[in-house]
């Protein structure tokens, strides 16, 4: 039965490819082209890094393999966590599961089919992101195409093993606690683990590992490099196998690859038999909804609406969104990840090796661009999807006496305050850590508040210009064409914003360095005019385009 | 109350609705019949303002839906064939949401919502999240929300799908009550027996074109075949 199930996936994929014509084809080609550019940039970065490591006297080759083992270990950990989060949806809440369960298909076949789906969704982006690293490694080590072939072969059992951990975890947890509440808790725990690993990894200052002088004794460093990185983990087996291949030690290659393949086969045989006993109970339990008893109390927005009838539609949408977001575990897990991102960002600022107050002030100014990027990344997860997440229920708003503009304004109302707060925290704390002078601190704070407004308006505008009311989760929206365009436009806007302000900042530093008559008021006025023009355009164009599209959008 | 003039809706080269003209008066229950893919749902979506016509015009309660969409929407209620609702709201909150959006006074909501929930046997489930409601329960909640806002025009697309027999009977009574209250009812349905019993007028659409329109008796007389004929016989003959 399993081949039938797998064939349907292949046919779906083929039909999707054949259905790409006209604008859709052009859009996908542009998207793929941009992806290839990003992979090429990653390749260039990895190549420089590995080339540097390989060139270190005596320990160069050991260093690059050590880094490879760490990269693979991180990839393995990320696939495990992703598979925990994704398996909860694929194994228990996929759209087609009710249909599949109604067919005379063997329960185990359905489970294995969904398990493969889980492995695919939880690993493909990471495997893709790893490609430039492996390509750079192969080139630095001067290896032939056989190395890449061997790597591809090793990756299959590697990701299968990583995915198996998540699949097993979900199956056992859902068997023990067969309820949809378990899914929410697992999502939260998954996000907490990702956030925790991310923060701990950054706080451990991995850059120290690339600087031998940071360790007290050279012998200690060499010993560290030669010691295995998590020897019982599949990432170490893959590293050993690749290292053996590069040195033409075929026996070592075969033994490590063999262990990997046998472990993957064993764990999937185990899963196959275990699913026959555990899957049904978990699936059945997942179909119920958690008991929830809502009250009939009057909400603050409803009380306010009675006093301000003109704001009633906006306030009504606001309380609807507030209640819905508060009850959706997916948002809580996103908030955890954002908390981790901000913590790591501020820690990285603190660790910057800057000596003079001038450089620290200059970095504070340039930090506006980086903080803006962090805000755009957050906007991609919260603001951009806000309209699309109305989902199938959007017909209620479309048929109600609320204009597209009204919907967009309300979504802006929900997102704007958190955006302003995040921007303010990022910049004021960074300025304090860096010891920025008053001029730079005031300018960067004002700029980030304007940027927060623009990035949020752009998020809603792009979200309305590229809505998709049929998506199952936020990740699909983030990786959509509209999401990509939103990020690209945010990057362009932030670059121009920093460039426009560079002129007065240059005059400020000239004054600090004691130059006579540093300020040219005409240049300041021009810079201010360009600042106003840039922000007005960035506010107006995406917002209007979004409004026009949402008004015309048909369900 | 509902005026459709020369309405055409095309998707590429395909005409889903082709030069449709009809009107529904206040207090009239109009049954819009047709086989799958005939253009019923497209018509009702254009009437509700969630789809735009390629050409022609539709007006509801005296307001052109394209030119004055908000005015038209304030006076109508639409229930689609798939009752998608906000899964993270409770039944009570959903009713309040609809009441607030359609500017029903808070005091009236507090009085009417418990009554409506009781009428549709949803009181016990009103504190639970809608993600736990069955298809039929969601459909009943939507119908209750229509009654809360007392619209002048009601658009139903297959309203009885998912309802249990008791709810269907109650729905029929309510439909007649809505019409008696002066509202125009536009109902797409496949259930010819219900259309025959409930509707004052019916129209049959086939491949986007209105094949016939009139009272049930008028439509029944359209075919030349002798003997007493049901609406189903006429429907099958006209759409073959």
How would you summarize this macromolecular structure in one to three sentences?
Chain A is mainly alpha-helical and 555 residues long.
Strand tally of chain B: 10
Shape of chain A: globular
What oligomeric state best describes the polypeptide chains here? heterodimer
Largest interface: A-B, 38 and 37 residues
- CATH overall fold name of chain B: Rossmann fold
> What is the CATH class designation of chain B?
Alpha Beta
Secondary-structure content class of chain A:
mainly alpha
Give the strand line-up of the largest sheet of chain B. Answer: 6-7-8-3-9-10
Please give the share of residues in helix of chain B: 25-40%
Proper CATH architecture of chain B: 3-Layer(aba) Sandwich
Tell me the name of the CATH homologous superfamily of chain B: P-loop containing nucleotide triphosphate hydrolases
Beta-strand percent range of chain A: under 5%
What would your notes on this structure say?
- The complex is a heterodimer of chains A (555) and B (240).
- Chain A is an all-alpha fold and 555 residues long.
- Chain A has 20 helices and no strands.
- Chain A has two domains: 2-6 and 38-286, no CATH class; 310-552, no CATH class.
- Chain A has helices at 2-18, 22-55, 60-92, 97-102, 107-140, 145-176, 180-203, 218-226, 234-246, 250-286, 300-307, 312-326, 329-351, 357-382, 394-398, 404-434, 438-465, 474-478, 481-512, 521-552.
- In chain A, helix 6 (145-176) packs antiparallel against helix 9 (234-246) and helix 12 (312-326) crosses helix 16 (404-434).
- Chain B has a single domain (2-238), classed as P-loop containing nucleotide triphosphate hydrolases (Rossmann fold).
- In chain B, a hairpin with a 2-residue loop joins strand 1 (2-11) and strand 2 (14-24).
- Chain B has 240 residues and is of the alpha/beta class.
- Chain B is built from nine helices and ten strands.
- The chains are: A mainly alpha (555), B alpha/beta (240).
């Amino acid at each position: 039965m399993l081949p039938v199930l797998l064939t349907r996936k292949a046919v779906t994929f083929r039909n999707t490819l054949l259905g790409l014509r006209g604008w859709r084809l052009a859009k996908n080609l542009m998207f793929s082209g941009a992806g290839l550019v990003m992979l090429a940039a990653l390749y260039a970065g990895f190549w420089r890094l590995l080339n540097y490591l390989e060139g270190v006297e005596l320990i160069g080759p050991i260093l690059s393999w050590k880094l490879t083992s760490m990269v693979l270990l991180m990839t393995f950990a990320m696939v495990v966590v992703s598979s925990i989060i994704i398996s909860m949806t694929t194994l228990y809440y996929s759209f087609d599961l009710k249909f599949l369960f109604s067919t005379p298909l063997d329960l185990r076949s359905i489970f294995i089919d969904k398990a493969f789906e889980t492995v695919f969704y939880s690993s493909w982006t990471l495997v893709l992101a790893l490609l430039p690293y492996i390509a750079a490694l192969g080139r630095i080590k001067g290896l032939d195409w056989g190395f890449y072939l061997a790597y591809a072969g090793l990756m299959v059992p590697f990701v299968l093993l990583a995915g198996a951990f998540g699949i097993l975890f979900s199956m056992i947890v859902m068997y023990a606690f067969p309820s949809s509440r378990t899914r929410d808790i697992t999502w939260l725990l998954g996000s907490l683990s990702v956030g925790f690993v991310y923060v701990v990894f950054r706080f451990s200052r991995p850059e120290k590992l690339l600087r031998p002088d940071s360790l007290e004794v050279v012998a200690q460093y060499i010993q560290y490099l030669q010691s295995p990185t998590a020897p019982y983990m599949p990432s170490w087996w893959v590293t050993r196998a690749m290292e053996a291949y590069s040195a033409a030690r075929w026996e070592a290659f075969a033994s490590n690859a063999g262990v990997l393949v046998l472990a993957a086969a064993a764990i999937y045989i185990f899963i196959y038999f275990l699913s026959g006993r555990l899957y049904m109970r978990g699936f059945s339990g997942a179909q119920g909804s958690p008991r929830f008893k809502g009250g009939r109390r009057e909400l603050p927005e409803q009380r306010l609406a009675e006093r301000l009838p003109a704001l009633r539609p906006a306030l009504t949408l606001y309380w609807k969104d507030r209640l819905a977001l508060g009850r959706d575990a997916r948002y809580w897990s996103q908030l955890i990840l954002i908390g981790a991102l901000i913590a790591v960002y501020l820690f990285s600022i603190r660790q910057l090796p800057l000596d003079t107050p001038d450089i620290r002030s200059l970095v504070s100014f340039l930090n506006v661009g980086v903080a803006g990027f962090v805000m755009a990344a957050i906007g991609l997860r919260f603001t951009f999807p806000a309209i699309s997440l109305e989902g199938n229920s959007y017909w209620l708003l479309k048929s109600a006496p609320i204009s597209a503009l009204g919907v967009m304004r309300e979504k802006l109302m929900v997102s704007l305050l958190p955006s302003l707060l995040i921007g303010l925290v990022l910049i004021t704390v960074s300025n304090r850590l860096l010891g920025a002078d008053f001029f730079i601190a005031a300018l960067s704070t004002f700029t980030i508040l304007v940027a927060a407004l623009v990035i949020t308006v752009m998020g809603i505008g792009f979200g309305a210009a590229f809505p998709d009311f049929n998506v199952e989760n936020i990740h699909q929206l983030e990786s959509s064409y509209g999401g990509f365009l939103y990020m690209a436009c945010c990057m362009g806007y932030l670059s121009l914003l920093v460039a426009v302000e560079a002129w007065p900042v240059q005059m400020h530093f000239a004054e600090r360095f004691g130059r006579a008559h540093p300020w040219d008021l005409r240049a300041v006025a021009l810079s201010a005019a360009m600042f106003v023009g840039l922000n007005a355009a960035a506010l107006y164009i995406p917002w209007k385009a979004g409004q026009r599209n949402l008004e015309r959008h048909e369900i | 109350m509902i005026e459709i003039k020369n309405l055409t809706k095309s998707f590429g080269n395909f005409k889903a609705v082709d030069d449709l003209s009809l009107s529904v008066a206040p207090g009239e229950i109009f049954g819009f019949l047709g086989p799958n893919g005939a253009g019923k749902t497209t018509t009702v979506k254009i009437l509700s303002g969630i789809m735009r016509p390629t050409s022609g015009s539709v007006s509801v309660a005296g307001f052109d839906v394209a030119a004055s969409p908000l005015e038209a929407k304030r006076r109508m209620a639409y229930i689609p064939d798939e009752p998608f609702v906000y899964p993270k709201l409770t039944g009570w909150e959903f009713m309040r949401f609809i009441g607030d959006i359609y500017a029903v006074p808070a005091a009236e909501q507090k009085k009417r919502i418990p009554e409506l929930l009781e009428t549709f046997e949803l009181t016990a489930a009103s504190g639970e999240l809608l993600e736990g409601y069955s298809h039929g329960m969601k459909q009943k909640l939507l119908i209750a929300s229509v009654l809360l806002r007392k619209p002048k025009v009601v658009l139903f697309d297959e309203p009885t799908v998912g309802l249990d027999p008791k709810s269907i009977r109650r729905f029929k009574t309510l439909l007649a009550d809505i019409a008696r209250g002066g509202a125009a009812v536009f109902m797409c349905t496949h259930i010819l027996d219900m259309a025959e019993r409930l509707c004052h007028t019916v129209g049959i659409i086939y491949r986007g074109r209105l094949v016939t329109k009139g009272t049930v008796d008028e439509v029944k007389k359209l075919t030349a075949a002798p003997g007493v004929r049901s609406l189903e016989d006429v429907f099958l003959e006209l759409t073959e």
